[in-house]
């Protein structure tokens, strides 16, 4: 009995540590159909973010997504976003991985999903945005020393094309509209770009629907239910 209590306490301790570090319980201990992943603060890539900043580490998110794909009990994934953006390569890598999941995936923008957070928001099967949530769309940029101007420009152009291609592939916005929003000079004082609030993101085709947690979970459950109906129908044939 003491051994069982000890194992139970260790399991609880491990779960608390997972929640503290990753924002979710240990996936191997979960037996539910829908798994939630949170992406908050700055997307941390190859460079470590400042200690005073909240950050989502891509080396934490990628194993979670792998575990979800391998877990037959999990049928759907809810990605909750409140991010300022961050490392472009890491954000795009996470977006591609989410988009390649065989599970039903729904994204929900709360607060904001800015910069490289935009492709993260469009990476699922369906997307929601809270009425007051915002999305900032702008070209990629850098600070620091530029050694070769033409070479750096070409690298940035290719990186920008990767982002545009992903967003237009995973949402209903067209390339020309996205490009105009990225390079608008009317909204940001110290930069070019656009800020879309709630319904505006839906109007431009970037996000599917305005809604919150209830709507996002309801949509995943509907997708899972439809899949089960199709499976039963195939079995009965």
From TrEMBL:
Keyword Protease in annotation: yes
Entries under InterPro entries matching the protein: ClpP (IPR001907), ClpP/crotonase-like_dom_sf (IPR029045), ClpP/TepA (IPR023562)
Hydrolase in keyword set: yes
Pfam families the record matches: CLP_protease
Transmembrane segments: none
Gene Ontology MF terms: ATP-dependent peptidase activity; serine-type endopeptidase activity
Keywords: Hydrolase, Protease
SUPFAM superfamilies xref list: ClpP/crotonase
Gene Ontology terms describing biological process: proteolysis
Family label: Belongs to the peptidase S14 family.
The protein, known as: ATP-dependent protease ClpP, protease subunit
């Amino acid at each position: 009995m003491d051994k069982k209590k000890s194992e139970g306490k260790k399991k609880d301790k491990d779960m608390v540590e997972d929640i503290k570090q990753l924002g979710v319980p240990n996936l191997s201990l979960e037996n539910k159909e829908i798994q939630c992943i949170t992406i908050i603060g700055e997307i941390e890539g190859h460079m470590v973010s400042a200690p005073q900043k909240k950050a989502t580490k891509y080396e934490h998110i990628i194993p979670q997504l792998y575990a979800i794909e391998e877990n037959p009990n999990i049928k759907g994934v809810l990605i909750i976003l409140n991010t300022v953006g961050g490392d472009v390569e890491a954000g795009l890598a996470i977006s591609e991985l989410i988009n390649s999941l065989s599970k039903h995936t729904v994204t929900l923008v709360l607060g904001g999903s800015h910069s490289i957070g935009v492709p993260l928001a469009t990476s699922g099967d369906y997307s929601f945005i809270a009425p007051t949530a915002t999305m900032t769309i702008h070209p990629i940029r850098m600070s620091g020393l530029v050694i070769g101007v033409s070479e750096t420009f070409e690298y940035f152009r290719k990186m920008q094309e990767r982002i545009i291609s992903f967003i237009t592939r995973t949402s209903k916005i067209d390339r020309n509209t996205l490009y105009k929003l990225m390079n608008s000079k009317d909204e940001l004082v110290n930069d070019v770009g656009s800020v879309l609030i709630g319904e505006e993101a839906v109007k431009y085709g970037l996000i599917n629907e305005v809604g919150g947690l209830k709507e996002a979970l309801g949509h995943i459950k509907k997708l899972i239910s439809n899949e089960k109906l199709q499976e039963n129908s195939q079995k009965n044939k």
